[in-house]
Specification:
Elements: E1 15-18, H1 57-74, E2 76-84, E3 90-93, E4 99-100, H2 105-116, E5 125-126, H3 130-136, E6 150-151, H4 152-161, H5 165-174, H6 177-187, E7 213-214, H7 216-226, H8 234-245, H9 254-257, E8 263-271, E9 274-282, E10 289-297, H10 306-317
Parallel strand pairs: 1-3
Antiparallel strand pairs: 2-3, 2-10, 4-7, 5-6, 8-9, 9-10
């Protein structure tokens, strides 16, 4: 078992930690099971040491009540960590609980592609088959280019903007497979996220398994690192932010929950009962906030609900809108 990533973002961290009220369910994510068992280990994590919060007690209680209420209303488990990237002020709820990450991992795969593949090698054209597309599932871009292919750069963009599954699988192959991405995240300080499968298998989380899962704390810290200007050079950071800003599958999620005028760049993911979004949210004239909202319905056969993510984001971002 890998240790949990302490939540430390930029200097001295002031943290508001909200105890989770799951409304049922275990520490592991729930999703439709398959007949082949994977890991049966029980997910564990080590909570970060949390300095006194800068948020007042009334706000603390309001956010806790709002998220616990949403968990009851949707019969779901919600995990949120939002961090001001300049002050370090953090709001966390179920921050160390594991969730299946679904397609949010595509943002990190694209980041590692930009980090590891030189610009002059990104134009190499890749080809795949109709069978590859059928096996991967949702592939709105690559299904249109079986005959002519696309460059690796175009595939990375399609994975982020359109959440194209075949594109993710091809980008993963270029960066060393799921194990290559897992190692890259570890190198960046994320020793919690476990990348094991490509699409579509990454969406099936076996009960008790930590494979293809993360925590809100780990993903928020990792996204802050990816976008802080030191992991990628300026041009590649801008490229990734542009792709996330054009995410076609996230309008009903964090973007819908953010206050008017706040700029959101995000990567969404969802499968079965799992619905997630990770984002950088920037208020007018304010500091960027990096945010992960990970949710799962407690009934593994229930469909996810976009409104749960949007309303969770709204409740947490209200704590920064003061």
């Amino acid at each position: 078992m890998r240790r949990a990533l302490p939540l430390v973002v930029g200097g001295t961290v002031a943290v508001l930690v909200l105890a989770g009220c799951s409304g049922g369910g275990s520490g592991a994510p729930t999703a439709s099971a398959t007949s082949s068992a994977r890991s049966t280990s029980t997910p564990t994590s080590t909570p970060a040491t949390t300095p006194p919060p800068r948020t007042d007690a009334a706000t603390t209680a309001a956010v806790r009540r709002a998220l616990a209420g949403l968990e009851r209303e949707y019969d779901a488990t919600v995990g949120v960590v939002a961090t001001d990237t300049v002050t370090g002020e953090t709001v966390a709820y179920n921050g160390d609980r594991r969730f299946g990450y679904a397609s949010t991992i595509k943002a990190f795969a694209a980041a590692q592609f930009l980090r590891s593949v030189p610009a002059d090698a990104r134009n190499e054209v890749v080809h795949w088959t109709a069978a590859d597309v059928a096996a991967a599932g949702y592939s709105p871009v690559t299904e249109q280019h079986v005959a002519d292919g696309l460059s690796y750069g175009q595939l990375a963009e399609a994975a982020v903007r359109m959440s194209d599954n075949t594109a993710l699988n091809l980008v993963l192959t270029r960066i060393g497979g799921p194990s290559g991405l897992d190692a890259a995240l570890t190198e960046l300080g994320d020793t919690t996220t476990e990348v094991v499968h490509g699409e579509p298998d990454l969406n099936t989380i076996e009960p008790g398994s930590t494979e293809d899962t993360t925590t809100p704390a780990a993903f928020t810290a990792a996204l802050a690192t990816v976008l802080d200007g030191s992991t990628l050079d300026r041009a590649d950071t801008a490229l990734l932010v542009g792709w996330m800003g054009g995410n076609a599958t996230g309008d009903a999620l964090i973007r819908a929950g953010a206050p008017d005028g706040w700029v959101v760049v995000d990567k969404s993911g969802g499968a079965g009962p799992i619905r997630n979004d990770v984002a950088r949210v920037t208020p007018p004239g304010g500091d960027p906030i990096v945010l992960s909202v990970l949710t799962t319905r407690n009934d593994p056969d229930a469909a996810y609900d976009d409104a749960l993510v949007a309303r969770s984001a709204s409740a947490v971002l209200d704590a920064f809108d003061r």
